[in-house]
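User: My collaborator and I are trying to settle a disagreement about how two of our proteins should look. Neither of us wants to argue from intuition anymore, so we agreed to look at predicted structures for both before our next call. Could you fold the first one, then the second, and keep them clearly separated?

Assistant: That sounds like a sensible way to settle it. I'll keep them separate. The first protein:
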Amino acid sequence: MDTILGLFGILVWIAAVMALAAGVTWAVIRLSPGGKSDKKPEQAQTESSSD
């Protein structure tokens, strides 16, 4: 019985750590400065496309 409870505890711990990591990542992305850029990256012209 102790083994089953121990395994269940490890699974709960893993889920808690993953939830914390996801929450911190979401908060950093949400709160970090910098906005969405409307500019599209310029495509480099190759010699073959300038016919």
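The second protein, kept apart from the first:
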Amino acid sequence: MVAQEEHRWPCAQCGAQLRYAPGQTVLTCDHCGHVQSIPSASQTSRRRALQELALSRGLRDDLPDAAMADIRTTSCPNCGAQVEFDGATHATECPFCASPVVVDTGTQRHIKPQALLPFRLTESEARRAMTGWLGSLWFAPSALVEYARKGRAMTGMYVPFWTFDAATRSNYTGQRGEYYYETRTVNVRVNGRMEQRQERVRHTRWYPASGHVARDFDDVLVMASTSLPPRLGNELTPWDLAALEPYAPDYLAGFQAEGYTVPLADGATEAKARMAAVIDRDVRADIGGDEQRVSSIETAYSGESFRHILLPIWMAAYRYNGKSYRFLRQRADGRGSGRAPLVDLEDRTGPLAGRRHHPWGDLSQRPGSAGTSPARLAEVRAISRTAGQGTEPRRHRPLPP
């Protein structure tokens, strides 16, 4: 078993702690300005670090010791987030819900992160984006405006994700529906008198269909955190996974990283459900016609593999009327900067826990809101939608009916 190493980054000139500079490959000292380069990984080390692990071994808890570590984590008593800290930190505020937490002394056996997407957006850039966006919302409550005006720092958090690969071949049976039309005469009442009129009526003729489809899935992304609403795992996309770097502690200097709370087996189940939805669309496309009925799909999976990766999110949490709210800056990789940050207003602590609402009430009931356009109100829920995951189908070869 590999024990967790304690990583510290003292400045070579003044001894203060260094921190990773987003968008660069250096560590910087906020005290004296000293800059220290992060060693680049060799091509061999890079290929080894970014290579997927066999899913079957991971599910059997049979991964090599080098892929495992004893991790010291802090469990937030309010939202359950598992936050990893370095050895010098013993108490802090939960970045997910702003509740005070204290580092415990226990360790857990975890799969090591293999890769991460380094921060490219600085804290000041993320905060300016958030405060500028809040300032544009005329209906924001005074508490939010005050929060933005104080300029409280946002927290850079690496959030855990699983990625899954698989090659699939699926046999299916079903029916193909093709429309045809008939003209019929009907009686209708017009001005108190019965008249005969003709109308076209659509019918569907069904034919048996069977065949098989094949698709390779690459990097199906599943959020491995239960600290954020599950929908964020899908909506904080697309991520530029081609820019993944081999995991190196230097990229975490000055940032926090959450330990995964979604087990590998649960993540694999979620990934297969997403794959199944894509395969169902492939089957319907292969059946063709105007409508489809799918009776059965039997899918064989091969080459199943996974990775544990960390993705960057800038976030700020505050408490309002006894409830916790979060601001998340999407696309913390620096791309898509024209998008508004996501405001997640989910009540995680009160009697309405699990419901999403605005702390200042129903916007439609606020005086003067009657003329507010739906597009304007939609700003507060601005999120990027998930593109389809998986590569294009390799082939479609229908079998004779």
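Some points you might bring to the call about the second protein. The longest strand covers residues 155-190. Confidence is low (pLDDT under 50) at residues 332-401.
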